[in-house]
Each structure stands twice: as structure tokens, then as C-alpha cells.
Amino acid sequence: MDNLLPLFINGDFIKSKSKEYLKVTNPVTQEILSQVPCATNDEINKAVASASEAFISWKETPPPERARLMMTYQSLLKEHQEELAEILSKENGKTLEDAKGDVWRGIEVVEQAANISPMLMGETLENVAREIDSYSYVQPLGVCAGITPFNFPAMIPLWMFPMAIACGNTFLLKPSEQDPMTPNRLAELFVEAGAPKGILQVIHGAKEQVDGILTHPDIKAISFVGSVPVGQYIYKTGTENLKRVQAFAGAKNHMVIMPDADKQRTIDNLVGASVGAAGQRCMAISVAIFVGKSKEWIEDVKQEMEKVNPGPWDSSKSGFGPLISKAAKERVLSLIETGKSEAKCLL
């Protein structure tokens, strides 16, 4: 089938030899956009071996040269922002404007990666003790890996691999299997920017592939963004295998509304934060606490929420798009029913 998504290994997009593929669907229409492979152990090993080999020369590449690669890359991302946003919207469901923001926030990180040189400077201190000078170097670790979630398929991969690579590491990316087309396009543009073979690999799959990354002896560090249970599992398993792990899990913003706040701006911000990415993000304001007279605004919040309409990504009338999957929708409907049975006051 021509809609099989490739892996990106050793500088080439290749068809996986896996017999297990997962469907990538448009959340609005349920149309099958592509099928994503669950990479084999052999393919994961080949990707890590390629990254390990590339690290030998990449770590010796001067930081200004690495920075120039990022300069070219951020320029290409800006040229293709609209295209990336459309791919993202089709597979994730976000409105086009929301998707553009997703891409742009990633571009800002690549811009920072283009300024990597001063961030890699070490420190010296003469005569830290009698006849002893102290100095430090900032050195790359080796092969790093990123495991990223579905809700920001452009921004979060771009949080990870540009900075890691600019620091002299090589990188293996395992994006969400629910919207993997956007990360693949990011990799294509990275090649177009002039990235040397092997410094970036893209492996697709689910838990089995994540386990292969967590336990691989040649991967030195792992970065993760996602849910609390998965974050705990990744942190525990990764550190048990002697890897450096950063796991950002389950973030949810809380909002305290004081009575002297600007009423309309507060309501607009609360509603906007709640519906962005269909509420599937840390900025979704799961808890809003109204203090004093601001409690009188709760009915106004309800009225503003009623004005925001869900819809397809390419409609100017859509205030937000659908949830990522049928399972996510069923979960939300279940939570609403629980709220109806337990809450004394439900808007």
C-alpha cells in the first residue's frame, strides 16, 4: 500500500519490515490517512548503531557549524509552516490557526538552537584553592532519544532533537503513533537543511518500541512528555538501565481569578485556554478558582463557552477541533456523566 509511513534510519526513509501497522486517522472524518509501522528490534538496533557511528564525527563538529545547520533549518520550517500546519491539522484535528501555533513554538526552539555556541561555554576559576585552578567543559553525551505525545506533534519533537543535536549529540525520535506524519515531515526538512547522515533517526511504534529504546545500552539519555503513568514507567525503566531521563508528565494549569481582575480579558483567556487543542494540553485550565465577587462571572463564562463551536480544522467557524480518537471522546463523555451525578452545580 502506498500510504505506509516509512522509518528514517541512517539518512534514508525506508519501508519497515514489520508486519504490524497502526492506522493513522483523520479525527474529523475517520479517513485513514496513513499506516504507521511498529519498528522491529533489528530496525531499532540499526537506527541506534547509525546514530552511534554518526556521533563520532558529529561531536567533533565545531558548535558554529552546528549552529549554521539550525539557522538553515529554522528558515526552512518558516517557509513550510503552512504546509506543516495542514499536515498536523489533518492527523491531529487542531484548527489551522492552532496548528500554526504548534509549529511556530517549535520554530522558536530551533532559533535558540542556532545560538548554541555561547550556551556551550565552560567555566574557569583561577586559584580556587592554593595553586589549584578549576575549569569545566560542556560535552555531548552520545545518542539521545525523545518519546513525544500526540497533542503537539511539531512543537515537542522540535523541543528535543534540534537542541540535543546542536549540543553535539545524535538523536533517535519516537513520536506518537497517533499523528506521526508531522514528525516525518520535520525529518525531511532537516535533511533538506543539510543534516549529515545519521544524526537524526525516526522510529515509529508503540510500547514495545519504547521499551526497546529504554533498555538499549547505547542510548545515553531520554526525554519524555506525556501522561503521569507513562512518565513514571519511563523514568523508572530508563534510570534502572543507567540512562539520564527527564520526564514531563501530567501537567495541568490551575487558574485563580481575583475580584480585581479584568473581567472580559479573564473570561476570554479562560475559555481560549480551555478549548485550545480541544482541551488536550497542559494549558487547558482543569481547575479555576473564583475568589470573592469574581464568582459572579461564572455564568458569563458559561455564556462565552456556548459561543465557541467545534468543527473541522479547515473551517473558519471552528473554535476548536475534535478529540484525537474515539476512545478519547468516550473518556470525556464518561467524565461528563460522572460530573452530572456528583456535582451540585454543573454549567
Question: Can you characterise this structure?
Answer:
By secondary structure, this protein is α/β, with parallel strands linked by helices. The chain is built from 12 helices and 13 strands. Helix 6 links the parallel strand 7 (143-147) and strand 8. It starts with 6 loop residues before the first strand and ends in a 5-residue tail after the last helix.
> What is the level-2 CATH architecture name of the largest domain?
3-Layer(aba) Sandwich
- The level 1 CATH classification of the largest domain is Alpha Beta
- Give start-end ranges of low-pLDDT stretches: none
CATH homologous superfamily grouping of the largest domain: Aldehyde Dehydrogenase, Chain A, domain 1
Largest sheet geometry:
5 strands, parallel
Helix content estimate = 40-55%
Instruction: Count structural domains.
Output: 2
Helix-strand pattern = EEEEHHHHHEEEHEHEHEHEEHEHH
Family: Belongs to the aldehyde dehydrogenase family.
InterPro entries: Ald_DH/histidinol_DH, Ald_DH_C, Ald_DH_CS_CYS, Ald_DH_N, Aldehyde_DH_dom, MeMal-semiAld_DH
GO biological process, one term: L-valine catabolic process
GO molecular function: methylmalonate-semialdehyde dehydrogenase (acylating, NAD) activity
